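Review form for a predicted model. The reviewer records the input and the model, then writes brief findings.
Reviewer: anonymous (R2)
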Amino acid sequence: MPTILVVDDELGIRALLSEILTDEGHTVELAENAAQARAVRQRCQPDLVLLDIWMPDVDGITLLKEWAGGGLLPTMPVIMMSGHGTIDTAVEATKFGAAAFLEKPITLQKLLKAV
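Model under review:
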């Protein structure tokens, strides 16, 4: 099964998404910030990333741009997540290569459809 990297600074979100995705048979890696996400990406090359936009160290859009600039997005699609997202934010994320945008709270149906 695919490996999915979940990047979110909120422990509860990481735990919930991990539980759901693991129950669906996916291998799940977790990161609470951009530094951890970079380390996991180098170690295991995830098949998909669920990336929160608002994080304390480096925001998700900046990390998305970094990965896009490195040519990683064709082999590692990124789905952006935010509880404070706007249409402008979703458009910006898509412009920089995000495969999709999920608004929090994320329903089970939306999550499973996206992955």
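Findings: The radius of gyration is 13 Å.
Further findings: The chain is about 45% helix and 20% strand.
Recommendation: see findings above.
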